[in-house]
Specification:
single chain; 361 residues; alpha+beta; Aminopeptidase; 2 domains; 7-stranded mixed sheet; 10 helices; 30% strand
Amino acid sequence: MTGFRVREAGPAEYEAVRRCIDVVYRETAAHKAPVFDRALWAWQYLQNELPSIIVVAERAGGLCGYLHAQRFRMRLRGQPALGALLTDLGTLSAYRRQGVFRAMADFLLERLRAEGVDVLYLFPNARKKSLPGFVRNHGFTVVARVPVYVAPLDLGALLASHLRLGAAGQWLGQLLNPLVRALTLRTPALDRAEEVVRLDQIDVRLEPLVRDFASGQGVSLERNLRYLRWRFLDKPTGDYTVWALARGGRLCAYVVTRQARLFDTRCTVLMDFGCLAGEDAALRRLVRTRLEADQRDGAALGVTMGLHPQLGELSKVGFVRVPEPLNPRPLNLITREFTQSRPELFDPSAWHITLADWDVF
C-alpha cells in the first residue's frame, strides 16, 4: 500500500471530498449522482445531532478516496448506545485494487472505537465485492438479507410499462385491479371517528408512537424528536410527507411517505412508520388510506423494506415480499460490535430497521 496516506478530513477538505465524490459518481453512474449536491451532503454528514467522521485517502495530486461514518444514538435492549452507519465510500478508478479502501476502513474503525462507538452497521449490495470485503477483512457479520415488500396499486400501468402491452395492458389492469384488491386487501377503511392528518411539524405527540413501536425490539436507532425532524423535515430536497391517523384528538399511528420512481415505476415509498401499543390495525388503516390516495394521483406501486414484525403484517394491505431472485438490488444488513458481546445484534428478529435508517432514499 504505497502512494497514498489515510487521514481524517477536516472542514478545510470538505470541498475536496465533494469533488472526489462527484468524480467517482460519474465514473460509476451512481444512482445518487443527479441529486447529491453540496446541500444534501452537508445535511447528511454535518447537520445531524452527532458529527460524522469522514476519512480520506490522499496522494500527491489530491484526494483519491473517501469513507463516511454517520453517528447515531441507539437503543440496545432498552439501554442507550452509540452506533455508526458506514456510507458513501469510493475510490478513484486509478487507485482501485491497491488497498486504498481497506486502509480507509481500518483507519475509520479505529477512530470509531476511540470515539466510544458500540455498534457499526451498513447495507452493502449483495452483488458487489464490498460485502465479502467487510466480512473477511473487517470483522463484520451478516445479520440478514433485508426484505423488500411491494404492493401493486395500478396493474394497468404496471402491465403497460413492464410488459409493453400499452393500451391492452391498461384495459386488462382495469379488469384485474378490483379482483386483486379483493384478494389481498384484508384491512378495513378508516373507522368513522378516525381521520388522516398531514403533520407539518414533528412534536411531542409523536413520542409515544415512536416509543411503543420500538418497544420489544432489541436493536434500533433512537427515534427522538430531534432525529425525526432532521431526517424528515430538514432534508433540503423536501422529499417526505408525514401522515398520522388521529382519533378523538389523539395520534394513534404515523407513516412517512415519499414519491419516487423505482423499477421504472411511479411509487409510493413507505420510509418510516409506527403506532401506539395495540394500534397495529390503525397503522394498517392509515397505510391503506394513503396508498389509495396516491393511487388516485398516479402511483402504480407501494414499496418498503426493513426489519420489524409489523412489516410482515402489511400483507393485509396488499404488500407481498419480493422473491430474492427478482430483487434487482439485494441489500444485506451487516454489523460489528466494539464493546460487550450482544447476541441480539446478530438476530434479525431483534432489529427495528426501516428505509429511514440508511441513506439510499
